[in-house]
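Question (not urgent): is this output format expected?
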Amino acid sequence: MKSVEQHGFIKKLVLVVLFFVATGYFFYTSFFIAPKEFPIPYHLTIEPGQTLFSVSSELLRDSVIRSPRVFEMFMLSLGNEKNISEGEYYFSEPLTALGVAMRISGKQFGIDRQRITFPEGFTNKNMADRLVQVFPNFNASLFLELTKDDEGYLFPDTYGFFPSLAPDFVVTTLKRNFDKKIATVADQITSSSRTKADIITMASIIEKEANGKDDRAVISGILWKRLDRGMLLQVDAPFLFLFDKQSSELTLKDLATDSPYNTYKYKGLPPGPISNPGLESIKAALNPEVSPYLYYLHDKTGAIHYASTYKEHLANITRYLK
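Got this back:
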């Protein structure tokens, strides 16, 4: 009888030990081990209004976490689902469910996002230089290689990146923001007689040629009018893109450069954008202001002076530039 009781006790003891071992293993893997299938590198986009359930389901589908319930428990313990921070997340190495929760809840183990601003009219090269200024270890050459066909389509804005950012993640973030911003004028682009590529190229010129918000629509009207009449655009902005030179620094040799970007030599728009325009310049390209003007120039202070005839334009040159 005693041996039967001992046998039952030992059986229960084994079950209890197995339970604690299994529980311990479960929590060990949840806290200290990332899934073997964790995809690297991994990009996660959390949209405004996205729920904790939808995020955990996406992470499970992508093999970033093992258990959505454990991940949700961590998120709730860190401050509930309202602490999910919308935006772009980049994972350069596997993390545990707790690590992922810390990142998404904004508690990145004391590592804060660094804010970086790209002004309207920045070229891809300008952006690369700014990224290196803020993140000294950033791979600028790879960024430029990845964006060689994206001039004009990287939206200038203020972004928040973690210090370990990778070039492909930055490119994805800037292009997604461009798509998001451009969606606000998608109907106008569709109904326009101009192509999207022409609109963005024109906007990139306006961004460099205008001196403030009020000038954008007027300059847009002048430049589209010159194009429609088969006139040379004769704008200096592309030379900043080609040679990194301002109008006052241009030489006769520069103006004679044999390049499709030279609008003093070739009619039509340049073959592509010369900078990354902001939304206001894109709107100006879509909504040119009708005016009697056909010419304009910038004086030595940057102020713009308009003229309806070439004779008036020559008079402005004499008055403001000589």
